[in-house]
Amino acid sequence: MFSRLTVSTLLALSALAPVAQAQSAPRPAIIYGILPGGDLNWYRHNANLTGGGLQDAGSWNASSGKTVGIGWNGMKEVFPGDNGVIYAITPNGDLKWYKHTANLTGGGLQDAGSWNASSGKTVGIGWNEFVKVFSGGNGVIYGILPNGDLKWYRHTAYLTGGGLQDAGSWNPTSGKTVGIGWNGFKDVFSGGNGIIYGILPNGDLKWYRHAAYLTGGGLQDAGSWNPTSGKTVGVGWNGFNQVFSTGKGIMYGILPNGDLKWYRHTAYLTGGGLQDAGSWNPTSGKTVGVGWNSFLTVFGF
């Protein structure tokens, strides 16, 4: 699974520009890969908005590939939240919460303060009943049951790791069914802000927008889903081993040979497709990395 500004340039600009401008600086893509041995490796794609690759200076942070965690191969599923939050589901169904506070810099186990002290806390149970779990951003989590029901949850305490025993940590309507028929996809992933993509076995990339993703509005609630949800916005996506998004229409696909491909769905908020001019960045499909087939799981935000 963004202007060309290097870290040094951003630091220089922050000293000259107003605070509002510094805060609006483009955010790089933070990507994690879990190796078969359990190492959690960290990467930072600085040129995620433009698709800068291996031959483009400064496109990747120099520390990319650093190991920032161990023992992650024992999880049934691992997926990202926001702002350094990572969730992991154990084989017994426990939902574990982690926060990589040094996610922008790649601070690791030996670097003080790199991980929130409560990392590893159990914040939910019974999550092994799902065939797929993914985050929708802002504490929203979706789970797909074997029968195809799409369940909605909101971990309101996602930034602090509040759990089952902490009052108000979960939205009281968590567990609500907001969709059906989602077991027909080869893969499903979120683009953030209620945007969900599904890849059919034939390779079609379907676009959905859960307009009521923050409140859990479902099928019976008017306006909860964008009326053009289910639109085909791409083809040939079944050729990837893994696909993930880091938000704002940015997607990465890992081919069987290990190439990391970059795409930008510029019309991600409206669901513009192949026939709609300007819906995809013209350099989409560019190779921005190699050797990514060595990971069990790759995800990012």
Can you walk through the features of this model?
By secondary structure, the protein is mostly beta strands. The chain contains 2 helices and 20 strands. The protein has helices at residues 7-16, 19-23; strands at 29-34, 40-45, 66-69, 77-80, 85-89, 95-99, 121-124, 132-137, 140-144, 150-154, 176-179, 187-192, 195-199, 205-209, 231-234, 242-247, 250-254, 260-264, 286-289, 297-300. The strands form 5 sheets. A 4-stranded antiparallel β-sheet has the order 3-2-1-20, with no helix packed on it. A 4-stranded antiparallel β-sheet has the order 4-5-6-7, with no helix packed on it. Strands 8-9-10-11 form a 4-stranded antiparallel β-sheet, with no helix packed on it. The longest helix is centred in the first third of the chain and has 10 residues, at 7-16. It is globular. Residues 1-23 have low confidence and may be disordered.
Tally of helical runs: 2
Q: Gyration radius, to the nearest Å?
A: 19 Å
Q: Which H/E pattern describes the elements?
A: HHEEEEEEEEEEEEEEEEEEEE
Trace the largest sheet across and list its strands: 3-2-1-20
List the topology elements.
Layout: H1 7-16, H2 19-23, E1 29-34, E2 40-45, E3 66-69, E4 77-80, E5 85-89, E6 95-99, E7 121-124, E8 132-137, E9 140-144, E10 150-154, E11 176-179, E12 187-192, E13 195-199, E14 205-209, E15 231-234, E16 242-247, E17 250-254, E18 260-264, E19 286-289, E20 297-300
Antiparallel strand pairs: 1-2, 1-20, 2-3, 4-5, 5-6, 6-7, 8-9, 9-10, 10-11, 12-13, 13-14, 14-15, 16-17, 17-18, 18-19
